[in-house]
Design a protein that fits this description.
Blueprint lengths: L2 E3 L15 E3 L13 H17 L18 E6 L6 E3 L10 E3 L12 E5 L4 E9 L2 E5 L15 E7 L16 E6 L1 E10 H5 L9 H22 L3 E4 L5 E4 L3 H4 L3 E4 L4 H11 L6 E6 L1 H13 L5 E2 L2 H5 L4 E4 L4 E6 L2 H5 L4 E5 L4 E12 L9 E14 L6 E5 L1
C-alpha cells in the first residue's frame, strides 16, 4: 500500500513545497493466482526420474534433466483390445453370419464363444472373415434370438476339443504416438536510465522484472499443457515451428454430468481405473475442488494428506475410492481455461514432460549499441502421455 508522508531530508523551497514523497513496500502484490502447480509437478517428477536413472538421490538439474533430443518425440502404445463390440447390422434367429463393428473383427478367432448381452444368447465362432463372424447359434442350449443393430457382443472365451492343434495366433499391432516439443520464450528489457531511476516498488529493476516474467512464462506453458494443439508448420521465415499437444487432446475418456455427487465421483473413478492402475492424481480447478470438499463434509468422508506432499512439496490431498486411491491437486491456471468444474485424473507413471532444452535465462541479448539491457528466458519442452485410456477427464457442466 502506498503512503503519503511529509517531505523529509531536503531543503523546503518554493519549488518543492508541493512535492509528495511516496513510499512503497518493495514486495509487489500481484492481483492474480500465480500457480502453475501441474507444470511444477511435472518438472519435479522429471528431475527426480532423471536422478533415479543415473542411480542418484535427490533431483537432477540443468542439462541433466534433458530426456529428449529431437523436437518430435515418439513412443509406442499397444491396444490389447476390448472384449466388447456391437452388431453392425440386424440378422434373424437362424442366420449364421454376424457382422460386428468395423475394425473389431480382429479380436475374434475360430472357436471363440461370444455372448449377446441384449438377448442372452451364446454363439460359437467357426470362421472369421474381416468383421464378419460365422457362428453356431444357440450354443449350449441358449435361446436363438434375432440380433438387432447395436446389440452388445461380448467375447467370453475360447473352447477347444481334446487333441486339437494350437489356436490361430492373434496379432498385436503397436500404435505409434508422437508429440512435439514447443519453444517457449519471454524477455524483459530496461533502458540504462530506467534501471537507475527509483520507481515505486523497484518495478524497473531487472531482477524484479525477471521474477514477474518467470511467473508468466510458467503460466503460458501450463496453458499449453492443458489445451495445446500438436502442429508442425513452416513459419514466415521458412523455419520449422512446432507446438505441443495438451491433455485436452490426449484424453479421450470424458465423464460429463450436469450435477455433482459422491455417487457421480465414484462413477468417474470407475472410468478412470477401468484400464488399470491403483493410484491417480486428479488435477482440477478450484470449482471442482469446492464440490469435492462439500461432498466430503456432507457425507463425513475422511480425506488425508498424501505422502506425495513430502516428495514434491506441493499440497496434495488423497481421497480413497473402492477402485483405488485418488490424490487431487488444485491448479489455479485451470480456472481461466475451464469455467465449469473440471479435472483430469492422471496416472503419473504414464505422463512425463519431455525436455529438449531446460528453462534458462540468457542475459544481455540486446544489440551491441542499445543503451540498456535485455534478458530472455527460453525453454524447449513438450508433454508425453502414454495409454490415454488409463486417464480420464471429468466435467460438471
Amino acid at each position: 500500500m502506498s503512503l503519503n508522508v511529509s517531505p523529509r531530508g531536503m531543503t523546503l523551497t518554493t519549488a518543492n513545497l508541493t512535492l509528495i514523497i511516496r513510499e512503497m513496500d518493495h514486495t509487489m502484490y500481484q492481483r492474480r493466482a500465480n500457480y502453475a502447480a501441474f507444470v511444477a509437478l511435472l518438472r519435479l517428477m522429471t528431475m527426480k526420474r532423471r536422478s533415479a536413472s543415473a542411480q542418484r538421490k535427490g533431483f537432477a538439474k540443468g542439462a541433466k534433466t534433458i530426456n529428449c533430443h529431437n523436437a518430435k518425440f515418439e513412443w509406442m502404445d499397444i491396444d490389447c483390445g476390448d472384449p466388447l463390440t456391437k452388431a453392425a447390422a440386424p440378422i434373424n434367429d437362424t442366420a449364421v453370419e454376424l457382422t460386428v463393428t468395423a475394425g473389431t473383427g480382429a479380436m475374434f478367432t475360430d472357436n471363440d464363444l461370444i455372448y449377446n448381452r441384449n438377448t442372452a444368447e451364446t454363439m460359437r465362432v467357426t470362421d472369421v472373415d474381416g468383421d464378419v463372424l460365422t457362428v453356431t447359434r444357440g450354443w449350449g442350449g441358449s435361446t436363438k434370438v434375432a440380433v438387432t443393430a447395436d446389440d452388445v457382443i461380448i467375447l467370453v472365451s475360447n473352447a477347444f476339443g481334446e487333441g486339437t492343434r494350437s489356436p490361430q495366433a492373434r496379432a498385436y499391432t503397436p500404435r505409434e504416438v508422437y508429440n512435439y516439443t514447443q519453444i517457449f520464450k519471454r524477455s524483459i528489457e530496461a533502458s540504462r536510465r530506467s534501471v537507475q531511476t527509483k520507481h515505486y516498488g523497484d518495478i524497473n529493476k531487472i531482477e524484479t522484472k525477471k521474477r514477474l516474467e518467470w511467473d508468466q512464462y510458467l503460466l503460458e506453458r501450463s496453458r499449453a499443457y492443458y489445451i495445446g494443439e500438436r502442429a508442425l508448420i513452416t513459419d514466415t521465415d521458412g523455419k520449422p515451428l512446432t507446438t505441443t499437444q495438451g491433455l485436452n487432446r490426449f484424453i479421450t475418456q470424458v465423464y460429463n454430468k450436469s450435477s455433482f455427487s459422491y455417487n457421480n465421483f465414484m462413477e468417474f473413478a470407475e472410468m478412470a481405473y477401468g484400464y488399470g492402475g491403483d493410484e491417480k492424481l486428479l488435477v482440477c480447478n478450484s470449482a471442482l475442488a469446492t464440490l469435492i470438499q462439500k461432498e466430503v463434509l456432507a457425507n463425513k468422508i475422511s480425506i488425508e494428506t498424501s505422502p506425495k506432499t513430502k516428495d514434491f512439496g506441493i499440497k496434495i490431498k488423497r481421497l480413497s475410492t473402492i477402485h483405488g486411491d485418488m490424490d487431487f491437486m488444485i491448479d489455479m491456471t485451470m480456472n481461466q481455461l475451464f469455467p465449469v468444474p473440471t479435472g483430469f485424473a492422471l496416472e503419473l507413471d504414464l505422463i512425463e514432460e519431455m525436455v529438449m532444452e531446460p528453462d534458462r535465462w540468457h542475459e544481455n541479448v540486446q544489440e551491441k549499441d542499445l543503451d540498456g539491457r535485455k534478458d530472455m528466458i527460453l525453454g524447449d519442452s513438450g508433454l508425453k502421455l502414454i495409454s490415454p485410456e488409463r486417464h480420464a477427464k471429468i466435467i460438471i457442466a
